[in-house]
Write a structure and sequence with these properties.
There is one protein chain. With 181 residues, this protein is mainly alpha-helical. It has one domain: Hypothetical protein af1432 (Orthogonal Bundle), CATH 1.10.3210. The chain is built from 11 helices and no strands. The longest helix has 22 residues. The chain is globular, with a radius of gyration of 15 Å.
């Protein structure tokens, strides 16, 4: 599956624009992490782009999240490594590969970064730096849905929280127009 085919699939199955933006942000972060870790940025980017392709269909039955998307991606002939990561991020497969670990850690961080941007005076990603995001990270009630334990699992990638956050922030700043931030 090409990136364009993945984006077409996402738009056909996910109508919520904020969820589409979340998937674009996850794609950007995973592409940047792949570069940093010497991995295939096209494979990692596609995993990020399609990871929640089934979310609207499974939002009321979380146990199926990732399984439905993984099945759909298998039918489309998507690489097994991507299918596995989609299932693993939703806790429906073991987290094993480096890609699995990266997607698990990135997924909630994108939400934390967006929330930080929205509470910043200029409401733009450009106004953020890593320290600002990390201060919000330490505030447990801020963006409470952003699982800090998952974000901290970036250590499983051999990255500290500061470097990991900086990589993802820069990636999201690079697509700020697409994200509307």
């Amino acid at each position: 599956m090409t990136r364009e085919e993945g984006w077409t699939l996402v738009r056909s199955r996910v109508k919520n624009r904020n969820l589409q933006k979340h998937m674009l942000a996850t794609e950007a972060c995973l592409r940047r992490l792949a570069t940093r870790l010497g991995r295939d940025e096209d494979v990692w980017g596609l995993a990020g782009l399609v990871h929640d392709v089934d979310y609207e269909e499974t939002k009321d039955d979380h146990q199926r999240h990732g399984l439905v998307g993984g099945g759909l991606l298998e039918e489309q002939g998507v690489a097994s490594e991507i299918v596995q990561a989609v299932k693993a991020h939703a806790e429906n497969a073991p987290v094993e590969s480096t890609l699995d670990k990266a997607l698990v850690a990135v997924d909630p961080l994108t939400g934390l970064i967006v929330a930080a941007a929205l509470m910043h005076p200029d409401k733009k990603l450009a106004g953020l730096d890593t320290d600002f995001v990390l201060r919000r990270y330490k505030e447990k009630r801020f963006a409470a849905g952003a699982d800090r334990e998952q974000i901290a699992s970036c250590s499983n990638l051999g990255l500290g929280l500061e470097e990991f956050t900086g990589i993802c922030l820069e990636a999201m700043q690079g697509i700020s127009d697409e994200l509307g931030l």
